[in-house]
Specification:
mainly alpha
């Protein structure tokens, strides 16, 4: 698989993936319903809160109202596509920067798997939040059995852990990519000197 990533992570393909990912993020978060959903939820959305409890997730989702929760479900589906594009861009960027920073040392390219772990967490989060957005206020109050046997509140508690994992993996993915880009830049500058 690293061979495939290495073949795809040429500078042009990597830059194209980064540009497409950035455009999709701008479209979703600047032009889409993100700001309106955030306001209706009373600030941060559930996927932005590290270790939010099940009750907090439920409260924020219920503040959206029926129509808002429907739009939030659509937003989560679009965010899943955005997460896929971000993962591809970060995998290619990390692999290319690792190759540029540490030529001949393939083991550094293994760091390109980190964005894949981030995507798995993000995708799971999106699917869980889509399911929770469909739960009625009565289902939350009654602890109704939903997607899993523990009911809606248990699903929200699991979602909290997934969100936290996504935030940690996302921070690590972006941090590693930036550090490798800096190392690649330093290597390029020192090679010219």
């Amino acid at each position: 698989m690293l061979d495939l990533i290495e073949r795809l992570s040429g500078t042009r393909v990597m830059l194209a993936a980064v540009v497409v990912s950035l455009l999709a993020s701008v479209a979703l978060f600047q032009l889409g319903p993100y700001a309106e959903l955030r306001r209706a939820a009373g600030g941060e959305l559930p996927e932005e809160r590290f270790r939010a409890g099940a009750a907090d997730i439920g409260e924020r989702l219920q503040r959206l109202g029926d129509d808002g929760r429907r739009r939030y479900g659509v937003f989560q589906a679009l965010d899943l596509v955005n997460a896929l594009l971000t993962m591809v861009a970060l995998v290619l960027l990390t692999a290319r920067a690792a190759r540029g920073a540490f030529p001949g040392r393939r083991r550094w390219q293994a760091l390109a798997w980190l964005p894949l772990a981030m995507f798995v967490a993000e995708g799971t989060e999106n699917l869980l939040l889509m399911q929770l957005a469909q739960a009625s206020p009565q289902a939350w109050a009654a602890g109704a059995t939903g997607f899993v046997g523990g009911g809606v509140p248990a699903l929200a508690a699991a979602t909290s852990w997934v969100v936290s994992a996504k935030l940690v993996l996302g921070g690590a993915s972006f941090g590693v990519a930036l550090l490798l880009l800096a190392a690649w830049g330093l290597r390029a500058v020192s090679a010219r000197a």
